[in-house]
Amino acid sequence: MNDARSGDHVLTSLLTSRTGGPAPPLKIGLTIIPIGSIDSSTRVATLSGTVTCSESTDGDVEVWGELRQRVDRTLIRGFFRTQFTVPCGGEWSATVEGDNGVFIPGRALVRAVAVGHFFSSCDYMQTSAHITLRFAPTAV
To answer: Which domains, and CATH codes, for the chain?
Structure first.
């Protein structure tokens, strides 16, 4: 029989024989560091944070999202995406370029999502945070 149930049974049997029991559910955690930097010459912002996982993943963990900042009457927006390879967890960082203008020092909003996979288990975490953007120190 070649239906979804038989496929699930094979996967469950494989996981049971490999791990001694069903795979534990994956739990993802995501944080955003409240200070971001801006390159003074390009006006590209750099955001960072941490990702935690309850298990090592069998694939990449992706973090993607959006940075928004009101500059005068314009809402500047930019999108980012970055990924981890196994094992899961650690610091993430991403660069963001404004789609309709440039980011400036000041308050901004980050919305982010992290997604990971562990065998047949998948989890994601959404978070948002107001951050402060500052010019990055210039290299001498």
So the answer is: 24-135 (2.60.40.10)
